[in-house]
Design a protein that fits this description.
Length: about 325
């Protein structure tokens, strides 16, 4: 027996939202990934106008979470949250979802989605390859702060091997030099890795450096390979931090440390286009929760004294700067 349904006008709009094969395909896809409208259309193999008509009906029951960043709209259906909540809709979706997944069209949609996600990765790599040569000038305001040194200070031990994930042009890795034994720099952009190599190879101080191209949701490191890992100013480029944090948990040995450096939520829309930011900052409490969900313990949040002062920001926010935070967590022994 399903829990009590909503009152009849809402029930009718809910059933209308669910009562169409294309709308079920849309919910089936958005239940697993946050997609832009364009990515959703390509995954469904349907035109934007057809998809927009269906989205209008789905929106009448407010089934979707929508984020607007610059000109982009990102859509998500929190199927797991609904099912865990256990209300009428949660139970209804838990009953429908296996049927939706059994449909042949859903299999075809997932196959197209895989291509769309690979295209998204390739776009990110192309974007960072294209800005790699000028990245040091773009990030110059932030480069002068102390936040990265505070991140690196967690790893002062000549025995340690540390991974710098999404290393960019190597600002954080540079702060490691002389503090630990080995730094493994990982980035999906070979252009960025090349710039990191230029910066770091100039400063030989006994720390061995390796460069590995790779994605944050499938890191090119083996289980427990490192004593610690850092991910600085990268999570806001990803659809969600979860896959990256799970990978960090896998590659750090028991007792080792993860350190994240991130921007708090802000309103600098231009950073979406100019810097490739998918999220305008991330809520520190949510990131701390994600770190715990990935298995880390002793999770601690510190608001950094530095503030990021991007040159193009609106005057008021430029003067104040954007708040940064550092989160640490440990893999249980
Ligand atoms: C804003 S830069 C930060 C660079 C550096 N960590 C720092 O603090 O200066 C973001 C970096 O993350 C990399 N990146 C973005 N998405 C990635 C992904 N999915 N896998 C691996 N690297 C990624 C980009 O290529 C870029 O070098």
């Amino acid at each position: 027996m399903l829990k009590s349904p909503p009152d009849s006008p809402s029930l009718a709009s809910l059933l209308k939202a669910l009562g169409d094969p294309t709308r079920l395909r849309i919910l089936g896809l958005l239940g697993g990934h946050e997609l832009s409208v364009g990515e959703l259309c390509r995954s469904l193999g349907l035109s934007q106008s057809r998809v927009s008509n269906h989205l209008r009906v789905i929106r009448e029951y407010a089934l979707l979470t929508e984020r607007h960043v610059g000109p982009s709209t990102f859509l998500y259906f929190d199927a797991a949250g609904l099912e865990a909540g256990g209300g009428f809709l949660g139970e209804l979706w838990a009953t429908l979802a296996p049927e939706v997944r059994r449909q042949r069209e859903h299999g075809d949609d997932l196959a197209r989605l895989r291509g769309v996600l690979e295209e998204r990765r390739q776009n990110t790599r192309n974007f960072f390859d294209s800005v790699a040569g000028e990245w040091n000038a773009i990030g110059v305001d932030f480069a002068t702060g102390q936040a990265r040194q505070r991140v690196a200070a967690n790893f002062v031990d000549p025995q340690l091997t540390v991974a710098d994930l999404g290393c960019g042009t190597g600002y954080v890795a540079q702060a490691f030099l002389g503090l630990c034994s080995r730094v493994i720099c990982v980035d999906s952009s070979t252009g960025m890795l090349e710039e990191a190599r230029k910066r770091l190879d100039e400063t030989p101080v006994g720390t061995r450096i390796e460069y590995r191209p790779g994605e944050l949701d499938s890191l090119p490191l083996s289980d427990g390979e490192v004593d610690g890992a850092v991910c600085a100013m990268v999570l806001h480029h990803l659809e969600s931090p979860d896959a990256c944090l799970a990978e960090m948990f896998r590659i750090i040995r028991p007792g080792g440390t993860a350190v994240l450096l991130e921007l708090s939520p802000h309103r600098q829309e231009w950073m979406h286009e100019a810097l490739g930011d998918r999220h305008l900052g991330l809520d520190p409490q949510l990131v701390a929760q994600s770190l715990e969900s990935a298995g880390f313990v002793e999770v601690a949040l510190e608001i950094a004294a530095d503030r990021y002062q991007p040159g193009q920001a609106e005057r008021a926010e430029r003067e104040e700067g954007l708040p940064l935070y550092i989160i640490r967590g440990r893999v249980p022994r």
